[in-house]
Amino acid sequence: MIRAVKGTRDLLPPSTAAWNHVESVARRVFHAYNYQEIRTPILEETQLFARGVGEQTDIVTKEMYTFEDRDGTSLTMRPENTASVIRAYIEHRLDQRPGVQKFYYMGPMFRRERPQKGRYRQFYQIGAEAIGSESPAIDAEVIEMVVDFFEQAGLKGFTLLVNSVGDSNCRPAFLERLRGELKSVAGQLCEDCQRRAVTNPLRVLDCKVPEDQAIIDKLPSILDHLCEPCRLHFASMRQFLDDRGIVYEVRPRLVRGLDYYMRTTFEVLHGSLGAQNSVLGGGRYDGLAESLGSKVPAPGIGFSIGEDRLVMSVEEQEPAATLDLFIAPLGAAAQREAGKLARDVRREGYSTEVAPEGKLKRAMELANKLGARFALILGDEEIASGRYALKNMQSGVQEPVSREQLAQQLAIAK
Ligand SMILES: [Zn+2]
Ligand SMILES: [Zn+2]
Questions:
Q1: Which is the CATH superfamily of the domain at 15-170+226-315?
Q2: Hey, what CATH class is 325-411 in?
Q3: How far does residue 170's CA lie from ligand 2's centre (Å)?
Q4: Which of 8, 115, 133, 224 is 20 to 30 Å from 240 by CA-CA measure?
Q5: Which phi and psi (to 5°) does residue 103 adopt?
Q6: Each residue of 362-387: pLDDT tens digit?
């Protein structure tokens, strides 16, 4: 038997209804903030991610699906989508379009991570990018949109964290300070931290190993080392959030794993205390476009949501898709009539199934198993009289109805 590739999975009904729900809410909410969809290819040249995500990151060094194409080009299946969006922005000169360019995307990403419960090598992200402005008002708007989206998608009890990680003006001095402090304590930290203390000390702050926390908490805070413009940017962004009544926590240890993030970073946690998971990570990346070869500055901010995890969290609240009408035709003439009736009802927007030929009893059993709201029995007599036998599957009541009454019944409690 051929099975799905390790780390990938099939998304099956009824679970796909929750995926559709989350995605349609995303489209609706993002549209309200004037974001439009962008679809970039899954395959990109490997150097895009090496430069855009960072040579030293775990993603690039260990987790990418990279292969040589037949002509020798090194290609990679996208491990994330921000670099691709920026590539498209530069390639198509989108900086010449009016206003801030606001894009959202949704789709599969690929990382060869160690198999773990709830982690997939093909996973899904919903994300957005706003490119072309440094203003803290854009940061606040993006964060507001995220909160709006989670609320409307039905995510309960999430926590929004915000921070500033400074910029190329103030961060180097902070990193120097951090490196200095780490020299004396790195030996007591986990293996990953010992490596990061040298390669990417900011990421030590992000470590989740419980034994490391007390030591890391005593390390210097980036918020005490921001330069004046960064400090003002952060204060202004927070003011905008406060104005809109958005609840958040400032978390000075919140840094992002990717090298190009600067100033505003944010994250959304979800789950009961002690078992909180990150469902969203985002931040500002003002230097990214230049590092990918843009001649013009393209300051941007964006986020990505782990859709697999989000769907798991809202799935219990989302009712499965329902079958509105099940038609059971009795005989050849009724089979033809059922086809026409099903066509009309489907055009009115009701999910409709027509029973295969066979006994009425079997058909009604099937209607029950499929969870149909109504079953309609169609025989020669019903065709002649123009009145159908309609059974409400929940109450069990069966009554003759006209075509008009059928429409009324279907519209009730829909
Ligand atoms: Zn650690
Ligand atoms: Zn700064």
A1: Bira Bifunctional Protein; Domain 2 (3.30.930.10)
A2: alpha beta
A3: 4
A4: 224
A5: -125, 150
A6: 999 999 999 999 999 999 888 899 89
